[in-house]
Amino acid sequence: MARFPLFEKQGKSAIQSFRLISNTVRCGGFIANPALGLFNRSARIGVFFVGIFSDFQPIYAERGIATFPLRDNKQPAVKYWNKIGLPASRKFAEKFADADALGFVTNERNGLSIIDIDTTDEQVVADALVRHGDTPMIARTASGKAHIYYRHNGERRRIRPWDGLPIDLLGAGGLVVAPPTVVTRGRYEFIQGTLDDISRLPAMRGLRPDMYVDDSPSFAPDESESDVGLADAVTIAEGTRNIALWRFCMNHASTHRIEIGKIIDRAELIDLARQLNANCVPPLPDAEVIEVASSAWGYEARGSNWFGTGRRVVASHDEVDELSPDAFYLLAMLRRHHGGWKFAVANAMAEKIGWGLGRFRKARAELDRRGKIKMVRKPNQWQRAALYEWGALATG
Fold first, then answer.
1. Does position 271 have pLDDT exceeding 70, yes or no?
2. Which one of 74, 165, 181, 205 is CB 3.0 to 4.6 Å from 101, fit for a cystine?
3. Same domain, yes or no, for 90 and 208?
């Protein structure tokens, strides 16, 4: 392992704050090569730290997005941040070379609009994708929430425009924290797609006229981007018909059970599905409507329809039968809190669930050995805790 004399002298906090951005950094007339442990020892000159903003500003700029530095509280570190272009952005990268947070404005110039999901509930994300259209780019925030990326199409900035939904529309003038920003609470990262997918972003669909700057989109969405909202009884376009019909049947069956107190009749659910199918362009064949409605009714009859009943943790029979009690409990806790994204299974979790460290490590090792979780990043002195993802045998 390379030695870092200056960092050792300054303490652990200096070590943890250092990130290797390039093999060699030129600073003040000398070369600092972290791989070789070569640092200028002069307290007057010090060591040059390359921050995330300075490193990623040109990457975003290549894609036409002007970024600016943010403070740790996610507020802009510069004035007139909502008016900057690429030249000013380049200058900020030189001036704020140690900044680890960056942001951009959603507007026509940068070409982006964002659906800002203010909850960690993945079902809200899934519903938003059905309502506004699929997209190749989704980012996870430091608090585990989501930003869904779309091509800017003249959208306004609106806070909570959909009653009862924890969602903001970041159209013209919205401030977005950009991956891979690091703040005290955590990091921002793309969990679907990369910056290379920006050119493939679709326009957002399912918006009311008042959600556009000029009360209408800049260009008409194509057929694949038509609205699929059910509440407003609008047209459901080809490519979205099956999922819209399925969700409608599942939701209606669940609501009927909760409000009426019994399972809906299969024939009644098929009739309702046929009514919805009249809004499809073109309508689905009747045999397909019957198949979708019957499938949803089957879930309801078996007690497997959880629409509208809250989130659940699911385990297979093999997991119940084969895992030790501690490993099974840890697996359930991880599924409860982490969904489908990468996550830490840090030693600090042992205290939170009332276990000793040895007991916790044994349960974690069993999940790893049985393929329920898989380590994708080893613990280290900069990023600290190991990072895991669900293994190939994570579900039964």
1. yes
2. 181
3. yes
